[in-house]
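User: I want to check something. If I give you two sequences, will you return the structure for each one separately, not as a complex?

Assistant: Yes, each is folded on its own. Here is the first sequence with its structure:
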Amino acid sequence: CDKEYNFSANYPKGHGDEFHDWLRRFHPDKHRLPIIRVSGGNRQDSSFEGALPLYDGLDEMLAFTNECLESSSNKLQRCLLVTLGSVEVIAQLRCESIMYLSVIVPLRWLAGKTHKLAHRDRRERSMGKALDLLHEAFVKIRSDPSLLLKETFIMNIFKPLYTQLPELKDYLNYYREEK
């Protein structure tokens, strides 16, 4: 997808520039998350990070690709249209996007800010509380999988930490609403 839809893609068979022009013409007010390439690297969460921009822009990508295929035949675009439009891929992108926003972003913040939270009496061992909350949430999800799609549940896994760490709450509100 990076090679086909990314604005900065220099892949000769990609259509990043055309897609960008199409978006400006038909969706000028749409804020678009940049598609990132996640095929390399060693972070285990990178595919989850890459799912969010795909899921967010999927309708526009599919509409653009379908429009392109009406005027010409392109095997790569046909493959993308079929694959990205499948229920299985859409479900996977949705779940990975939810996991990214509800689990990975808060844990990254907590892990990255531990050294700056001494004034809150937070140290490296304090991560155990976050992991306990995560474990409890996923035990509940195992018994009731619909909780994964219930926003009030999944986006508040770490809510018990908000009173001790108002910075976490502020960051998550910023990340989810403004960023």
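And separately, the second sequence with its own structure:
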Amino acid sequence: DGPAYLRLFYFVGPRSVMRGFKLPEGLTADDFNANGDDEVLTVLDLWVDQTLIAAGVAREVVNRFQKLRKKAGLTVMDTVEMFYQTVTSSASIDGLVASLKPSHAVVIASELTSVGSEEDGTAASFTAILTVPCPAVRPCAMLASVSGDAALAEAVGIYVGRRDLEALKKEAAGGSITANVDGKKVTLTVGKELFFSAGAVAPPAQRGGDH
């Protein structure tokens, strides 16, 4: 977690105090910056660990999406979903939403962008995509609910994707809806088979968030 112990030594003379700084083991003078006067010595720790690097890249990712929102003419009141289509892989952005955009999602804007740097090994590029929020189903749960009938599960997914989001929310106010597809009635439970955000369908570790 980085150097946590910085030791200062004070040498008391007859007229003045001399302040010295001893570097922690394994670090060099380039990892710190120090300055002071006759009263105070301030030491700034410049050592950067992987947690700080990852946080910096995450801020860059957010910045790219904010800029894309602005280019698209969106306001803070406009709700969208964001997706990432990775171009070059980087551990710094693993776990963010990728390739989860449903085929029926309406794309508002997309842009190829990059984050990180070659110097610290965090360089990565990806296509940032903004879409209109849309309902979706969780494939594995949907397949289980129709006893493994893949064709029916796909048809229900298409049916849900074509529904108006707000109308579907009202219909599912009780916690579920019944879809009539191919002459069959299929019950979808909110949070199990049915979701009002395509990003929410993914497991938590894969979500980049809905914005």
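Because they were folded independently, the notes below concern the second chain alone. The chain has a mean pLDDT of 80. The CA atoms of residues 8 and 21 lie 5 Å apart.
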